TrEMBL record:
PANTHER family: GDSL LIPASE_ACYLHYDROLASE, PUTATIVE (AFU_ORTHOLOGUE AFUA_2G00510)-RELATED (PTHR22835:SF659), ZINC FINGER FYVE DOMAIN CONTAINING PROTEIN (PTHR22835). Belongs to the 'GDSL' lipolytic enzyme family. GO terms for molecular function: hydrolase activity, acting on ester bonds. It comes from Rhododendron griersonianum. Keywords: Glycoprotein, Hydrolase, Signal. The keyword rRNA-binding does not apply. Residues 1-17 form the signal peptide. This is GDSL esterase/lipase. InterPro entries: GDSL (IPR001087), SGNH_hydro_sf (IPR036514), SGNH_plant_lipase-like (IPR035669). It comes from the Eukaryota. CDD domains: SGNH_plant_lipase_like.
Amino acid sequence: MTILLLLTLCFVSSVSATPLIYDSIYSFGDSLADTGNFLRSGALAFPVIGELPYGETFFKHATGRCSDGRLVIDFIAEEYGLPYVPPYLSLAKGEKVQHGVNFAVAGATALDSRFFYEKGIGRIMWTNGSLSVQLEWFKNLKSTLCNTKQDCSNYFKRSLFLVGEIGGNDYNYPFFVGGSIKQLQALVPLVVEAIVSATTVSIGLIFSIFCKMLIEEGAAELVVPGNLPIGCSAVYLTLFQSPNKTSYDQNGCLKKYNAFSKYHNAQLKLALEKLRQKYPQAKIIYADYYGAAKQLFHAPLHHGEFSTFLSSMHATSLIKVQCEKLCNFLNKKVMHSRV
């Protein structure tokens, strides 16, 4: 839970010094934000997130969160005095929405799933619930909340839109089937375009339209988190372990994969700045998840029992145990790294 608290602190410190009193939260993304859509989607016949130890520390039962407790979005809701944001697929027909909805799906990508099937790697995807699907869900819900542009502007001006984290799985899937850093760097512009850019590209069009639509419908504050330091994650340390000590930084993280995350984040921040210039009336906030998570690896002794795991980061056997215990959805070797 420590890393989630750090990410939440990062988020809360990122919003304005005199934040709006939000009435609702609308969330899009992957498993860092999914509060139950993946579990309810039936994408996997026997998803392990539907069983303990998932949910055991706080909810005392599995909720569909890829965590043993709460997620960043849960702490954000608590911070602003709002109820936990329900997953879209849990809503009953005709149910009145008062405090927002969560459209995030574990395993989701920013790019449409068609992109990955055309590249021949669609078979390892957990879900087709990409942002294009989440957008469609939002559009269906929006039609029940407001009708005219002015109505929607008034309705959403006191809403917080959490747009991600998203994009990490766009890289995970290709990396896990042998994609190189160079190959994946060529994918970064497409993913960033899909998240924020006002420029139309064939694969990135859906989320480009989505972001613009949120702002044009009156969204006052949007938070767009960056990617995490993937070179510090157990799955990357397991799958891409190296006998060369120079491959690791002082914290035992794989340097080249962290450099890749930083490259994505740099491109994302540049694109967000262009979006701010296009929509000066909106507050578009970058949340530095990378920096928040990195604190955990730079100073593990400040964060309780997690230090035990970090001090053993080079121990391949321990990492493999963690991979298999936490999230083994695909094939006993590929772990869900978005938790």
